[in-house]
């Protein structure tokens, strides 16, 4: 009998009156703080103003949150939200018994990525910094935020892995009694490794005068390649994805990853061959 890890931690870190601070929320906040500090350091190194990075932080924060929320609603749960349009935008649900606060429980990384790109386009219109230059700087924050979000998912016992008998399997006691892949931690580790690759690529880019787009291309390629393959270690998030896996061997997360992977490869190669 293997001694699997039992995971049964309370997802609420601390209660302050009726408010409960969740590990997941804390991970989001820490991710944005660390990301902001990283990007700010790069802006200063490249002699760009502090005002510009603070404005970028606001654009990206809103873009990521709105995009991640809409991405979940449109890609994963449109059947419900098509009949509850107002709940796309406000954190409450309307039931026969009254109004219930739900928070923004669903967030999709693909939607967040699209939201960030749109936010950068709007930022570019005001500050006139080349879009790929912005994305090259900003993408140092992306794997850091992604890793912390997946750690938050682990604390929430959500986005769980498929059943397995590997020696490092985790039993999420709040879900069931099956040993499962700690898929959230697989992704977190992949994002940390992506960050290290980006640090190396940044030095290489400025040492050899590589065109903008290399960091952006590598970032989305590595992140979504990892996401694509780790999906095979996960349970599907929504029931309709079972049919997708049975028919084409992929779920929604994998299908949505393919355009990002192709775009990442394109921008990586473009930055190297057009230098």
Helix proportion range: 55-70%
Q: Calculate the terminal CA-CA distance, rounded to whole Å.
A: 57 Å
Order of helices and strands: EEEHHHEEHHHEEHHHH
- How are the strands ordered across the major sheet? 1-6-7
Structural class: mainly alpha
- Please give the number of β-strands: 7
Summed up, the helix count is 10
Low-confidence stretches: none
Overall 3D shape: globular
| Share of residues in strands | 5-15%
Describe the sheet with the most strands: 3 strands, mixed
Return Rg in Å: 20 Å
Quick check: average pLDDT? 87
Describe the structure.
- It is a single chain.
- Helix 7 (183-208) packs antiparallel against helix 8 (214-230).
- The relative contact order is 0.12.
- This protein starts with a strand and ends with a helix.
- The model has no long low-confidence stretch (mean pLDDT 87).
- It has 275 residues and is mostly helical.
- The strands form three sheets. It has a three-stranded mixed beta sheet, with no helix packed on it. It has a two-stranded antiparallel sheet with strand order 2-3.
- The chain has ten helices and seven strands.
- It is globular, with a radius of gyration of 20 Å.
Helix-strand blueprint:
Layout: E1 5-7, E2 12-16, E3 19-22, H1 23-45, H2 50-76, H3 78-81, E4 92-95, E5 98-101, H4 109-127, H5 131-138, H6 141-155, E6 170-172, E7 179-180, H7 183-208, H8 214-230, H9 240-248, H10 252-273
Parallel strand pairs: 1-6
Antiparallel strand pairs: 2-3, 4-5, 6-7
Helix pairs in contact: 1-2, 1-6, 2-4, 5-8, 6-7, 7-8, 8-10
């Amino acid at each position: 009998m293997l001694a699997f890890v039992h995971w049964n931690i309370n997802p609420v870190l601390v209660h302050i009156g009726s408010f409960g601070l969740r590990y997941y929320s804390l991970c989001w906040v820490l991710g944005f703080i660390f990301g902001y500090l990283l990007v700010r350091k790069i802006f200063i190194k490249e002699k760009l103003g502090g005002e510009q990075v603070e404005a970028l932080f606001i654009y990206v924060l809103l873009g990521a949150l709105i995009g991640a929320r809409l991405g979940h609603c449109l890609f994963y749960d449109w059947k419900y939200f098509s009949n509850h349009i107002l709940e796309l935008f406000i954190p409450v649900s309307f039931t026969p018994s009254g109004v219930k606060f739900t928070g923004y429980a669903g967030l999709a990384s693909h939607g967040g990525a699209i939201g960030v790109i749109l936010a950068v386009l709007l930022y570019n219109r005001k500050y006139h910094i080349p879009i790929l230059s912005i994305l090259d700087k900003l993408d140092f924050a992306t794997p850091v935020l992604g890793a912390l979000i997946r750690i938050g998912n682990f604390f929430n016992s959500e986005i769980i892995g498929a059943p397995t008998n590997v020696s490092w399997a985790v039993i999420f006691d709040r879900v069931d009694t099956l040993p499962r892949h700690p898929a959230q931690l697989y992704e977190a580790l992949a994002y940390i490794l992506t960050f290290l690759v980006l640090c190396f690529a940044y030095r290489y880019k400025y040492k050899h005068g590589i065109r903008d787009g290399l960091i952006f291309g590598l970032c989305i390629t590595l992140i979504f390649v990892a996401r694509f393959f780790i999906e095979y270690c996960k349970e599907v998030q929504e029931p309709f994805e079972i049919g997708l896996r049975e028919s084409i061997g992929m779920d929604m997360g994998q299908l949505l990853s393919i355009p990002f992977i192709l775009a990442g490869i394109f921008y990586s190669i473009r930055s190297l061959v057009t230098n």
